[in-house]
Design a protein that fits this description.
- The chain is of the alpha/beta class and about 300 residues long.
- About 20% of the residues lie in helices and about 30% in strands.
- The strands form 6 sheets. Strands 1, 2, 5, 6, 7, 8 and 21 form a 7-stranded mixed beta sheet that branches.
- Helix 5 links the parallel strand 12 and strand 13.
- Helix 1 runs parallel beside helix 6 and helix 4 packs parallel to helix 5.
- The longest helix is centred in the C-terminal third of the chain and has 21 residues.
- The mean pLDDT is about 95.
- The structure holds flavin-adenine dinucleotide (FAD).
- The site of flavin-adenine dinucleotide (FAD) has 40 residues, from helix 1, strand 2, strand 9 and helix 6.
Length: about 300
């Protein structure tokens, strides 16, 4: 058994495992895919102190940093169930889809999240070639260009306001007959001169020239007519889904699928900590996830030195 078992191998998990190993704790890290979302990212320009890197390169550095320590690193392992300890100081158990199970006195959950996809033709083909999901990350790449934001909830409208300050023109596309964002955000967006807002508009296709995005096709849901908007970028903002389905029956507190944590990265279950995109922490970013992972590890350390094994 481990003293600390980290589930998830993205930036949060890597930081957590390195921090607990450096405290001398027997640490294991198990992930379905080491590197996490970083593996799907092209240019990264906001990882402070590294002006430019690329996802696969950063993912390789995470793995290399983990290898510097005596950490049991287990890739391609998908957690299916968490069985929490029945008393403080006791052993938690994590069961994996291959039937294996691992035990640890403390568990750090860092299973991240995934962007909800539109599921229309062209979306997957042009991902990172005009189709983007993170305005904080990719917004500056569209300076002076035309983009669409799909989704009229808070994240979509915030993204549209953010992008309107950077790009030439923004078209906000909402499926529903009205925007669902807070009124103050909607008012702000409406006041911006380079923004068009489309409601009752169903995105049906992302069009391109084979290399990059050239247009967005949508259907007016009231008239049934199809329209084409010429542009260079499409930001999909229809929700971030936390990878926490496997925790449903564990007794762990979730809020809209996000693991509820406090300022110490503690969950409602003693000895179970969580960090990164899978949690209620605001702002889903690499640098935030790493900071949170280190916090969860230091909290696990604190828990382990204060509670005798039972
Ligand atoms: P993740 O990176 O999602 O890692 C989760 C880990 O958990 C993975 O190893 C996964 O395989 C594993 N896992 C999930 N479920 C299970 C399970 N049941 N059992 C075992 N393992 C499991 N942020 C920036 O700061 N700058 C950028 O430029 C940037 N660009 C981005 C571009 C794209 C296309 C995307 C998708 C995201 C981008 N982000 C960027 C966001 C950033 O990638 C995330 O905020 C960050 O990766 C979150 O780290 P994490 O460790 O919490 O989760």
């Amino acid at each position: 058994p481990y003293e600390v078992l980290v589930i998830g191998g993205g930036p949060a998990g890597a930081a957590a495992a390195i921090y607990t190993a450096r405290k001398g704790f027997r640490t294991g890290i198990a992930a379905e895919r080491m590197g996490g979302q970083v593996q799907d990212t092209m240019g990264i320009e906001n990882f402070i102190s590294v002006p430019y890197t690329e996802g696969p390169k950063l993912a390789a550095s995470l793995e290399q940093h983990i290898k510097e320590y005596e950490i049991d690193s287990m890739n391609l392992l998908r957690a299916e169930k968490l069985i929490p300890a029945t008393q403080v100081g006791g052993m938690h158990e994590v069961v994996f889809s291959n039937g294996a199970s691992l035990k640890a006195r403390s568990v750090i959950l860092t299973t991240g999240a995934r962007w909800r996809n539109l599921g229309v033709p062209g979306e997957a083909e042009y991902r990172n070639k005009g189709v983007a999901y993170c305005p904080h990350c990719d917004g500056p790449l569209y300076k002076g260009k035309r983009v669409a934001v799909i989704g009229g909830g808070n994240s979509g409208v915030e993204a549209a306001i953010d992008l309107a300050n950077i790009v030439a023109h923004v078209t906000l596309v909402e499926f529903d007959s009205k925007l669902r964002a807070d009124q103050v955000l909607v008012d702000k967006l409406r006041s911006m001169p380079n923004v068009d807002i489309l409601v009752s508009a169903q995105t049906t296709e992302v069009d391109g020239d084979g290399e990059k995005v050239s247009a967005l096709v949508y259907k007016n849901r009231e008239t049934g007519e199809e329209h084409k908007v010429e542009l260079e970028g499409v930001f999909v903002q229809i929700g971030l889904v936390p990878n926490t389905e496997f925790l449903k029956d564990s007794g762990l507190e979730l809020n809209r699928g996000e693991i509820v944590i406090d300022a110490h990265a503690a969950t409602n279950l003693p000895g179970v900590f969580a960090a990164g995109d899978a949690t209620t922490v605001p702002y889903k970013q690499i640098i935030v996830a790493m900071g949170e992972g280190s916090k969860a590890a230091l909290s696990a350390f604190d828990y382990l030195i204060r509670n005798e094994p039972v």
